[in-house]
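Aim 2, interim progress. The first record below pairs a target sequence with its structure tokens.
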Amino acid sequence: MRDDEEVAREFQALRGRLLGVAYGLLGSVDEAEDVVQESWLRLRSADRARIEDLTGWLIVTTARLARDVLRSARHRREEYVGPWLPEPLVTGERPRADPAGGGDPADRVTLDESLSMALLVVLESLTPAERTAFVLHDVFGVGFAEIGEVVGREPAACRQLAVRARRRIEARAPRFEPSPDEQRRVLAAFAAACRTGDVQALLALLDPGVVVRSDGGGWVAAARRPVHGADRVARYLAGVARWYADDGEIAHATVNGRPGLLWTRGGELHGVMSVTLDGGRITSVDFVRNPDKLERARQLRGTH
């Protein structure tokens, strides 16, 4: 049987992956941290002689705890002021070579482009069981037998959960995924148009069916409902740009593994924006302005 020191080392080696699982299910680093900490406490009190696969045991335990939190969180999110968006993970100007490293929990989450903000938004429309099956299997490669232990269903039923989830996600996915160069080019043009509030320049970049979701959490000004349509979105963004015109800045950063924008005013971070493209046009914009969800991004930039 492993001694305490060996178990602690193995747990730390898996911590980034466990945080990724919990974050994928919850969309919140704080809640993911709490879940992973609880997994550690349960491991310490477990009969380790009966744990044959420590990695599998920790993933199943973490997913179970996260799913319980997700069930209660769904009710809270129904009462949320305006659209609820996941907490963005900002990792600097370029993707980190080792996203599991670093001192802050957000830096240690095992994350790649498969957990983009756009995907996390779609995951909110799934049932807890569908979301669990998809995140565990499609993102983290967990087998359906282990997923069955989490959701309390047979492996075949879990496979069907993942299939249903995948179909719903693919129905809302971009038809033509942009290349990294195209994404950077469009994002640069979009940032320039936002800085000046140029409605015509924005219209040239927006898909006719574009939607903006803005999450202020009831704490700061934000659209209480999603804004639909290129004309309305362009005018909405131009209005936002006017507020940032005095001592404002829009900087490029990596948000959930993909290029995004940081909006600051007076040196203080006020918003993190994630943009989704399809066929060279912007189809959705997710704008997190809730101060509680920006704390880690502010720490990264050294702002308040």
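The second target in this work package is listed in the same format:
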Amino acid sequence: MSESTLEATRAAEGGERPDADALERMYRLMVVTTLADERSVKEAKAGKLQAAFYPVRGMEAVCAAYGEALRADDRIVSTYRNLGDALAKGATLRSIMAELYGRVDGMSKGKGGPMHLHDASVGFMATTGIVGSGLPIAVGLGLAAQLDASSEGAESRVVGVTFGDGATSIGTTHEALNLAALWSLPVVFVCQNNQWGEHTPIAEYTASTELADRARAYGMKAVKVDGFDAIATWRALRDAVEHARSGAGPVFVEAVTYRLTGHSGTADYSYVPREELDAALARDPAPTFRRWLAEEGLVTNERLDELDAEAAEYVDDAFAYAEASPAPGPDELMADVFADNTWVRGLA
């Protein structure tokens, strides 16, 4: 990582931190994400899930930081690598796991699958299976938030959108960045740079690996942060959210991490350089954050053990719930496929 563009300081360098309750929430979310992710990979390999699963290992700190930076009424658009994002925005693990198993108690009644998690009740507006396609959706939501705030004289909601480094080479990404900057929309673009575009390392698919510079070219604020550092990432995202909410325009946050697994839950990743993977595993987000919390005297080891146990129980409960949920029946075959006959208000 280029130190000249690393604009958010690491936690060890001091600075503001979330309060004690927030630190515990962040740690618990990271552990839940790790445990649920690892178990989902096992279930995918066993053939128990109804579609492919895309792990989020390595990005847990970014997800936890995002969860604390956003308000409950803010919205988010995610990618198919969405488990941590959904949890961070307040979705229940039960509903997520039931969807992965293709059961009626899932977020989309078992018909969307892992690549299409969605829960508007908590502001988790959409996930997309097409690389880069979430950004224009977020821009549309950002425009709606801006218009709502103007008409109501209220503070704007913020729309967050997450995407991988590979998405920065997609045309729709650049169209979305340009429009968001042009209209000063309250959107925070979060590039979860895990340094792999599916099976291709970043340096082999782009000549410019400083991804934040791409957003700066459109006239928006952009920062690069160590995505393994939960506190530095929280600071960067908190500042970005405040900037966007104030009406000052969108922000691009490049959170540099490393993918700790294959592209999908069943994919081989022996092609990943061993030394790079070992270095990344040495900074595995949840264990690293636990050590830091204990060493700084912010959370006792006894309390951390309790949080670990709570997380494990929560994950066990979610998987048991999902397996016990029934599959959709024949009556659901055509439901949610076509619009009903309700007319748009004012056009009848």
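The chain is about 40% helix and 10% strand. This observation will shape the mutagenesis plan for the next reporting period.
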